[in-house]
Fold this protein.
Amino acid sequence: RRSCPQCGAVYHIENMPPKVDNKCDKDGAELVHRSDDTVEVVQNRLKTYHDQTKPVIGYYQKTSSVFDVDADKAVDQVSNLIFDKLDSLAKA
């Protein structure tokens, strides 16, 4: 990931690269690599998730406060699934 220090635009060097290498499409500023965006930091975040967050999700899944959404669909379909679930929770 690279980001623009001026406007905050975010790019991915493979999946969503800027039009001009290392330059923001919006304002031409030099893109930066955030210091907290490293393999080590991501590995630590994943460890923290598995150690601390995942067990909590399991607890709330048992109480029906967490639900899964198939996000491998069009944005509108995913949004509708989420809003439908939230509507059903509000009516409960």
